[in-house]
Amino acid sequence: MPQPDRFAPAGGVSRNAVIVGSVVLLHVAGLWALQSGLLRKAAEVVVPAELLSEFIAPAPKAAQPAPPAPPPPKAAPKVQTPRPAPRPAAIADPTPAPNAPVGITTPQPPAPPIEAPVAPPAPPAPPAPPAPARIEMPSSDAAYLNNPKPSYPAISKRMGEQGKVVLRVLIGTDGLPQKVEISQSSGYDRLDRQAQDAVLRWRFVPGKRNGVPETMWNLVPINFVLE
User: Measured in Å, how far apart are the chain's first and last C-alpha atoms?
Assistant: First the structure.
């Protein structure tokens, strides 16, 4: 006679019902674990220790790059002078124009040579001083003049008056005396006046400057001497 199952739950629930209920609960729990992340945590928990150690090991530090070298000093920009555009070269056309005048081209004379600058002429030398004028004094000694000697006053002879009178005479270009002055007296008025009167009637050879007659003063001595 079969023995009753030891695992039969009390209350008359069958074994199959318990198994089915357990399976359903497991499925429900699994769905709930997927939704709440429990399954992911469980997967992390069961990761092997070797893999975990590889993930946790610190990554090697990258070598720090060396500081960049300072840039070299910039050279001053060179100012380039714009080159003039090349001009088109003229091409000689051997064919003359239909109305071009025909003539003879005269060559230009060569340019005169450049001469060195001429120094300015030296200033002229100052003129030489004029030669001293050649002067000829008037004269009353010419024989052709026939000048008489002054007469001796009679009273002066009786009184013994004598002496030398020097007259200053202005003689014109015609040889005639224009003025007679006493330059030196004889000491006697009668002798001085007699000498003046006589000389005023004389004629003279006029004085000359470089051969030209000129009015001049001349000294004329008159001696009164008792014999």
Answer: 246
